[in-house]
Amino acid sequence: MKQVMNTSKKKKFDQQRIAVLRLEMDYELAVLFEAIQENNDRKKESSKKKLMKIREELLKMKAM
Q1: Pick from 52, 47, 57: which is nearest to 21 by CA?
Q2: Distance CA 30, CA 47 (A)
Q3: Which of 4, 19, 30, 43 has its CA 20 to 30 A from that of 36?
Q4: Distance of alpha carbon 50 from alpha carbon 22, whole angstroms
Q5: How buried is residue 19: exposed, middle or buried, by Cβ count under 10 Å (0-12/13-18/19+)?
Q6: Nearest-CA neighbor of 25 among 44, 60, 50?
Q7: Residue 5 pLDDT
């Protein structure tokens, strides 16, 4: 029974984390769009790096 509860809690935590990551991704895409419009290379590269980290974490979580 304890394993079932732990599995349930982990699944709920994972779903919440995925939702947060998606929100972070949306925000970072907006930042990237703004940087492209401003032609700000430093801001573009920073945003791309953050998006890659978010992408990697999402891929890891969905693979589990």
Answers
A1: 57
A2: 9
A3: 19
A4: 12
A5: exposed
A6: 50
A7: 67
For residues 32 and 44, the answer to whether their CB atoms sit within 8 Å is yes
The pLDDT of residue 4 is 65
What single-letter DSSP state applies at residue 64? -
Q: Write the pLDDT tens digit of every residue in 4-35.
A: 667 778 888 889 999 999 999 999 999 999 99
| Helix ranges, the chain (H) | 2-38, 41-63
User: By C-alpha distance, which of 32, 25, 31 is closest to 53?
Assistant: 25
Closest-CA residue to 22 (of 41, 11, 44, 62) = 62
Are 28 and 51 in contact by the 8 Å Cβ rule? The answer is yes
Phi, psi for 40 (deg, rounded to 5): -100, 100
